[in-house]
Every structure is written in structure tokens, then in C-alpha cells.
Specification:
The complex is a heterodimer of chains A (about 350) and B (about 525). The longest helix of chain A is centred in the C-terminal third of the chain and has 33 residues. Chain A has a two-stranded antiparallel ribbon. The N terminus of chain A is likely disordered. Chain A is mostly helical. Chain A has 15 helices and 2 strands. Chain B folds into 3 domains: about 240 residues, 3-Layer(aba) Sandwich (Rossmann fold), CATH 3.40.50.300; about 190 residues, P-loop containing nucleotide triphosphate hydrolases (Rossmann fold); about 80 residues, no CATH class. Helix content of chain B is about 35%, strand content about 25%. In chain B, strands 6-7-8-3-9-10 form a 6-stranded mixed beta sheet, with helices on both faces. A 6-stranded mixed beta sheet of chain B has the order 16-19-20-13-21-22, with helices on both faces. In chain B, helix 9 runs parallel beside helix 16 and helix 15 runs parallel beside helix 16. The chains are: A mainly alpha (about 350), B alpha/beta (about 525). Chains A and B meet through helix 2, helix 10, helix 11, helix 12 and helix 15 of A and helix 2 of B.
Chain lengths: ~350, ~525
């Protein structure tokens, strides 16, 4: 674990410049990755059925909305200045309501129409957050809390309990394609798209704005527009999470979304992402979501009650933040002493 | 040299900008020609920074015109200024600490999204810019926070010069550099001038202004009061224009005579030492340092960038552990205590004023008064209740004695000028009645008048028996203020020069490791 964190300085077999740069860029993810592996092994040891193929597909589809909403929160957090998006949970939940009570009854069931609608809806609702934060200059935590309440209320008003129907393909997305869980395909598509996005200058601009807004602005970065785009991407990921959630619960439910906000923020902290912004990446949110899921698996296996799980979640959130701070401190000190 | 006859590259006319009640710029004018190095001088609060922020697109003017190469322009963002051909290095070293040197240099050159592989181009460009500035060995992939202050500042210069600029604006861009680095930068600027480019710079070092500029524009209270060729300008004349008081030009002379007198007085009575450094080793290969600092003495610390003087200061106040040796605080009754931690040093009356006020000293959103009083509360409180009245009295006394200029002590400290912020920061520690005051380059980026006031403040403190250890990057300042100058080279103390018997050249010689005056250094 330690060697991964400070590994970038030591020349080794993996010291071609390209590899070194990838390691350096993602060094923040070393701790969550190690945690993920350890938890995976523990889970496999404790629960014999954990590695069974049928369980894989189920686990992955339960995990999927958590990971996507965590990634959705990651982007605003990276953009700094107290950036966060609390609305991701209710927004994801509202997707299930939108699909099952508006789109399906109106005969819109084809993936070729549903997916674009979800994408546009996600970008627009993210853009509302972005406008409020970057142009109206509201604190992100307040602006997105407002949007949280808005989608929560709207979803519950339309569909106070589970109901409605969903297209078949959406349910299949939570099954398996041959031996491979279909969710993996979804993840692979997102990973591919994100790799394309971050090959350009967007990621550098994002980390610069999160790292020191004034430096970025005076150097010529359009800070406000970058935040607008970043929150839009966040909204998009949240709505994709909502799409997967709709398939998972096989219907609409106005009350299913809100808890995802809390799990997403916990996952971001577990993913080694600085809540101050400027350090981390989308991978961190995904890893953090995985870690959180594996912890909850263990707790469920040990027949811990839902309320106790919530207590544990709180402790994990605080512990993860403290761990982030400590790892950061050690990293700086070891680098400083090398100089 | 300067070619005023050619069409001007930049013409600014009637430029005004107010912040609330304050008129920062009041119909200022400026003309910059191609192939010219132009210096903008003025005291703090004269409008230099505001003018530069407008020129670089950070601020919008209330009125006035900006004509760039014959065309009237409206700048809406730093990006638009850069697109026009103006590259700016700001007074504050604006960097992104987590990002690499290369990313910091190429920051903002892209649009929000940009594709196409430019990595090789960036590496070559960054390498070239850093070589031009004398930072050949810097690893482009190391994160920015691992760099020294001087390296950071040069990296922000590199960020400006990799852009296609025709006017380079440097706002106090040499404040953290040592003499060698500065000369290297100036060589680069002269080369750029010979290629037809224009440079506009501000500096509080008069020798830089006179040595580098072709023409000088003086601002006072937001208005342009004079533009002159550097060959016809004198130090005294410029100071006169800046202050609007002719008598002011004699300040240097007065300043030079006072401390000598003071120093003699202190030496004749030989007051007790209050701080003893015993066999202190700063780094592996360095010689151990032993030195005594007496009550009422002002000991100057000099050296080129990174020669150990900053580490020495940090050892004195417990922020850093030396490789070997120790620092002793000596009490009145002959008892001695080793400095082991920053808190411990504070308890022993050793107070430290750090170098970077924005990050290490001030609480930006808090008021002037709160910034001043923050260190007092531990003494001025009973059962957790604060004795505000007493603190206010102490603030009033400080404000009067230091001639603090502030609209109201309740306003946030961030609205004060750099010089006034520094006064508050110093006042905070002075109010604690230190035995030893350790100051790390406190007058960086402070205007001439404020400097004079602060010199007076330091001298009064010394007269009251406070030992002052004064690290400075300006030799002239050390010669003006101190009793002795300790010079560092490669982690060792190579000379302790009595100020009244030393010249500029002696100090520079010692800084470059010239050992002639080594006698008596290690005592």
C-alpha cells in the first residue's frame, strides 16, 4: 500500500514515462484500490456463494447505481470551491418515475429514444446546478440541496410508492450477457467515453480550477463555463445511474433515490478524492462505490440490521475523510524529506 | 534604445476605476512602445496593480480607452488579453500546487476541450522557457508544491513567456528571486527587447528600475504624474515624483545614519545575550554554526536563495529540527532553555513572522482588528471570556505608533494594501512583547514609505531591548537596518559582518562564498 503511494519516485521495471505518468496521475487511488482488493478477498472468504456466477450479475447490478451516482458527485467535488452535488440521489430516483409513468405510457420504450432522453435530461438538470453555482454564485451545498428537495418532492408526488412498468431491455441490462454481467458492458462504455474526454484538455482544466481557481482564471481558463460543463456531466452520470436503477427495481419509485446521495458522498470520500477539490479523478468515485458496496455486503452477511448499517456508514464516512487527510500528510512529508 | 518615434504598441488614456469609495485609478495614461522596457513605479496604493489587472483582463475599467497596436480594445477576461498578445506575471505567485510543473506552465493555453497530441511540443516549450530563465535542471513532471518560492515564481514567468506575447507585464515578479536569478531574467528581457517586444514591469527595487528600464512612468494616487527616459531620471527625482514631497528624497540618508549610532550605543554597554546558537548543523556537509544574539541587537541574515538562511530561521523558532546542535533561549537570571518546538519557542518569547503573508500569516476574511488580536487572547481572557477593551486599547496604541492606514479596524484585512497587512502582522507579534523577534523577509513587496515606517518600528523595538533576527533578500535594507549581517553560503554561516564597517560589495562577496572576511565569523 505504502509502496504504491510513493512508488512514483522509485525507478523500477514500471518506469517508462507513460506508465509513470499514469501511476502519478492516479496515485490518489492507491488506497481505495488496496481497500477494494482486501475487501473482495475477505468477502470471498466469508461468503462461499460470493464468487458464484449468478451472484455476480446481481451484485453488479445492485452496485451499479451507487457507483454511477458516486461518479456524478466526484466531478463537482473536483471542481473545488466547495463543489458538491447533493441532488444526484433524488435525480436518479426521479428517472425511474419519469420512465415508468411518463415515457412508457406514452409508448416511448425503445432504447434509441429512452437513452437520448435520459442523457439530455441529465445534462440539463446538471446544467441548472452549474448555472446556480457558477453564474448565480450560490454555495453548491445550498443550491444542490434545493434541487434535491425539488426532485424528491416531484418524484414522491407523482409516484409515492413503487409502481409502473419498464421496458424489457432495461431489465436485461441488469442480467448477464453470456457469462458477463451486462453492467460490465455499461461500465466499459462509460470508461471508454471518459477516457476520450480526459485525453483532451478538460481534465487538466478541471484539476486546475479545483486546485487554485485564481491561478486557473488568470492563466486563461474560463472558470465559470468549466463549472457549468462539470455539473452537467455530473447530472448526466446521475441520470445514467437512475436509468440502471429503474432496471434494477423494475419499475418506478419516488422514494428510492434520496439514500443514494449519502452513499455517493461516502464513496467519494472512500475514493481518496479531496473534498477541497483539485485532487482525484472519476476512477476514485467508482472505486469508492465498490468499497462501500463490499462493506455493506459483509454487514448484510453478518445479519446486521439496516439501522446499524447506517451507523457504520456514518463511521466509514468520517473515517475515510480522516484517512484521506493522513495519507495526504504522509505523502507530502515523505516527498519533502526526499528533497 | 527606446524608440518613442515609432507607433506605440499600447496607449492607455483616461483610465479610471473605483472600488466603492476608493478611486484606485483616476484618469491614468500610459504609452508603451515596441522594443522598449518600460517601468511603472509608484507607492503601494498608487494604482499600479489596478492598472496591470485591467491591462491583463482581470478587472474591467469604469472608463478610459485602451488602444493596442492602433485598435481600440475591450478586454473581457485574462484569456482575451492573452489572445491580444499581453502576457502577465502577477505579484502573487499563482500556481496550482497539486499539478506538475509542465501543467502549470501550459495552464489555460487550451480551450475547455481540446484534442490533438501536443505533449512533445509542451515538453520542449517548457524546457526552453525554463532554460531561458536559468532553471535548466527542473523536473517537468514533479508537482508544483515541491518547488521553492523562487522556482515557483520563475515558473509563473515561464507560463507567461511560452505564450505568443508582444507585451510582457511583470508585477513585482522578482520579489522572491536571488541576485543571480534576477540577472538571468533581466538578460532574457533585454534579449526580448532586441527582438522588438515590449516589457512593462513594476519593482520596489530602485536599482532594478534604473538599471533595466528605458522609460519610467510614475503613478501617484491613481494618476500618471510623469513619464521620463531612464537616462535623464535620478533616484531622487523618481522618489520625489512618487511621494509628491521633495524632502522625502533624503530619507535614504537619514535611514543610513540612525542605526550606526544605535549600534554603537548597544555595543558599548554590551547587553546580555538572549539567544544562543550552539554548534547548529543545518545539513550534512555544512559547518556547525555558533552565534549569540544580544538584547537590542538587530542581526541581519543574508545569502543567495537556498543557502540555508531560511532553514536557520526555522530552527531558531522551532519549526525545524537541526541535523545537530541546539538553540538556547537565555533568561534574565542566567537560566537557559532549549528550543524544541514552535510552541516551546513561543513560550520562551521567540516570535516568528513568516515570509508568505497570504498563506502563513493572515486570516483573509477576518477583520483587521481580529487579525491583530488573535495572539493576544490567550493572555487577555479569563474563564474563556475575552477582555476586548484591553485588546482594543493595545490595537489603538499599535495603530498610532505604526501609522496604520485603515478605514476601520472592523473591515476585512484583505482590503488593506500589502504594506498595511504586513504592519498588522508585525503588530500582532510585537503586542506579545517578544524577547526575540524572528522576521523572514518582512518587507517584500512593501512600498518605500511604509518601509521607512517599519524600519523605525524595528529600531524602536530594538531600543526597547528586543533582539531582532532579520532575514532579507535586499542587501541595501540589511545595511540600513542591522547591527551585524550574518551571511550564509551552502548551509554554513560564512561571515558575520559588522554593518558599520561593511559595504554592499563585502556582503555580496561573502554571499558568493568569498572567504576573505571569515575572521571572527564563528563566534
Amino acid at each position: 500500500m505504502t509502496s504504491l503511494v510513493s512508488g512514483q519516485a522509485r525507478p523500477s521495471a514500471l518506469s517508462t514515462p507513460a506508465v509513470r505518468q499514469i501511476l502519478r496521475r492516479n496515485s490518489y487511488a492507491a488506497v481505495p484500490l488496496a481497500l477494494l482488493i482486501v475487501l473482495f478477498v475477505v468477502n470471498a472468504a466469508v461468503q462461499p456463494q460470493f464468487l458464484a456466477q449468478q451472484n455476480w450479475a446481481t451484485s453488479m447490478s445492485v452496485l451499479c447505481p451507487t457507483v454511477l451516482t458516486a461518479m456524478a458527485v466526484t466531478l463537482p467535488v473536483l471542481s473545488g470551491n466547495g463543489g458538491i452535488d447533493l441532488s444526484v440521489g433524488p435525480l436518479a430516483g426521479f428517472m425511474s418515475v419519469l420512465i415508468s409513468t411518463v415515457l412508457v405510457p406514452a409508448g416511448i420504450t425503445s432504447p434509441l429514444t429512452v437513452i437520448p432522453i435520459v442523457v439530455v435530461f441529465g445534462l440539463l438538470s446538471g446544467a441548472i446546478n452549474g448555472l446556480l453555482v457558477a453564474y448565480v454564485r450560490l454555495p453548491a451545498i445550498i443550491a444542490t440541496l434545493g434541487m434535491y428537495l425539488f426532485y424528491d418532492g416531484l418524484g414522491t408526488e407523482v409516484l409515492p410508492q413503487a409502481g409502473g412498468s419498464v421496458p424489457v431491455w432495461l431489465v436485461k441490462l441488469n442480467g448477464s450477457v453470456g457469462p458477463i454481467p451486462a453492467v460490465w458492458v455499461v461500465f466499459a462504455v462509460i470508461a471508454l467515453l471518459w477516457t476520450l474526454v480526459s485525453r483532451g484538455s478538460y481534465m487538466r482544466n478541471l484539476l486546475a480550477v479545483g486546485g487554485d481557481e485564481r491561478a486557473a482564471y488568470t492563466a486563461g481558463v474560463n472558470v465559470a463555463r468549466l463549472r457549468l460543463v462539470t455539473y452537467s456531466f455530473g447530472g448526466l452520470l446521475a441520470c445514467l445511474g437512475g436509468l440502471m436503477l429503474t432496471g434494477l427495481i423494475q419499475g418506478g419509485d419516488g422514494t428510492v433515490g434520496p439514500p443514494y446521495t449519502i452513499s455517493a458522498i461516502t464513496a467519494v470520500a472512500l475514493g481518496g478524492i479531496s473534498l477541497a477539490g483539485g485532487r482525484g479523478g472519476l476512477l476514485g468515485g467508482a472505486l469508492g462505490g465498490g468499497v462501500l458496496f463490499l462493506i455493506q455486503e459483509l454487514l448484510t452477511d453478518a445479519h446486521v440490521s439496516v439501522y446499524q448499517v447506517s451507523v457504520v456508514d456514518g463511521i466509514i464516512l468520517i473515517g475515510a475523510l480522516a484517512l484521506n487527510g493522513t495519507v495526504e500528510h504522509l505523502r507530502r512529508r515523505s516527498s519533502a524529506s526526499r528533497r | 534604445m527606446s524608440s518613442v518615434d515609432e507607433a506605440s504598441r499600447l496607449v492607455i488614456e483616461g483610465l479610471s476605476r473605483s472600488f466603492g469609495e476608493t478611486r484606485a485609478l483616476n484618469s491614468a495614461t500610459l504609452r508603451v512602445c515596441p522594443s522598449e522596457i518600460h517601468s511603472l513605479v509608484g507607492e503601494n496604493g498608487s494604482g499600479k496593480s489596478t492598472l496591470i489587472k485591467i491591462l491583463s483582463g482581470v478587472l474591467r475599467p469604469d472608463s478610459g480607452t485602451l488602444i493596442w497596436e492602433g485598435e481600440v480594445k475591450q478586454l473581457t477576461s485574462p484569456r482575451s488579453a492573452q489572445g491580444m498578445g499581453v502576457a502577465t506575471v502577477f505579484q502573487e505567485t499563482l500556481i496550482v500546487p497539486e499539478m506538475t510543473v509542465r501543467d502549470n506552465i501550459y495552464l489555460g493555453t487550451d480551450r475547455l476541450f481540446r484534442y490533438g497530441h501536443r505533449k512533445g511540443e509542451e515538453i520542449a516549450g517548457a524546457r526552453q522557457a525554463l532554460t531561458d530563465l536559468g532553471l535548466d535542471g527542473l523536473d517537468l513532471d514533479q508537482p508544483m508544491w515541491t518547488l521553492s518560492l523562487a522556482e515557483r515564481q520563475l515558473t509563473t514567468v515561464a507560463r507567461a513567456i511560452i505564450r505568443p506575447w508582444r507585451l510582457l507585464v511583470l508585477d513585482e515578479a522578482t520579489s522572491a528571486l536571488d541576485a543571480q536569478q534576477r540577472d538571468r531574467l533581466f538578460d532574457y528581457l533585454r534579449l526580448a527587447r532586441s527582438q522588438g517586444k515590449s516589457i512593462l514591469f513594476t519593482s520596489h527595487r530602485m536599482d532594478e528600475v534604473l538599471g533595466l528600464a528605458d522609460r519610467i512612468t510614475v503613478l501617484r494616487q491613481g494618476a500618471t504624474v510623469a513619464t521620463m527616459g531612464a537616462s535623464e531620471a535620478s533616484r531622487r527625482g523618481i522618489l520625489g515624483h512618487m511621494s509628491g514631497r521633495e524632502a522625502h528624497a533624503d530619507a535614504d540618508v537619514v535611514a543610513e545614519t540612525t542605526p550606526r549610532h544605535n549600534g554603537e550605543q548597544q555595543h558599548s554597554s554590551q547587553p546580555r545575550p538572549v539567544l544562543r546558537v550552539e554548534e547548529l548543523t543545518l545539513r550534512a556537509a555544512a559547518k556547525p554554526i555558533s552565534v549569540d544574539v544580544r538584547a537590542g541587537e538587530i542581526l541581519g541574515l543574508a545569502g543567495l536563495e537556498g543557502q540555508g538562511q531560511v532553514g536557520f530561521v526555522e530552527c531558531l523558532c522551532g519549526l525545524r529540527r537541526p541535523v545537530d546542535g541546539r538553540v538556547l533561549a537565555l533568561g534574565d537570571g542566567g537560566q537557559s532553555h532549549t528550543v524544541r518546538s514552535y510552541r516551546g519557542a513561543n513560550r520562551l518569547g521567540i516570535r516568528y513572522v513568516p515570509r508568505d503573508r497570504r498563506y502563513e500569516g493572515l486570516f483573509g476574511p477576518l477583520s483587521v482588528f481580529d487579525n491583530f488580536a488573535i495572539t493576544l487572547w490567550s493572555d487577555l481572557s479569563r474563564f474563556g471570556l475575552l477582555k476586548r477593551r484591553q485588546a482594543r486599547k493595545s490595537f489603538a496604541a499599535f495603530a498610532a505608533s505604526s501609522r496604520l492606514v485603515s478605514a476601520s479596524p472592523r473591515r476585512p484585512i484583505s482590503i488593506l494594501s500589502g504594506g498595511n497587512q504586513q504592519k498588522v502582522l508585525l503588530g500582532r507579534w510585537i503586542a506579545m512583547r517578544p524577547r526575540v523577534l524572528v522576521v523572514n523577509d518582512p518587507l517584500r513587496g512593501v512600498d518605500h514609505n511604509t518601509k521607512e515606517e517599519l524600519y523605525g518600528l524595528f529600531r524602536r523595538l530594538a531600543d526597547d531591548g528586543v533582539a531582532i533576527i532579520f532575514l532579507s533578500t535586499e542587501i541595501a535594507e540589511l545595511l540600513t537596518l542591522t547591527d551585524q549581517i550574518a551571511v550564509f553560503h551552502e548551509g554554513s554561516l560564512v561571515a558575520v559582518l559588522p554593518t558599520e564597517m561593511s559595504s554592499d560589495t563585502d556582503v555580496v562577496a561573502a554571499m558568493f562564498g568569498d572567504d576573505k572576511r571569515h575572521g571572527g565569523a564563528d563566534d
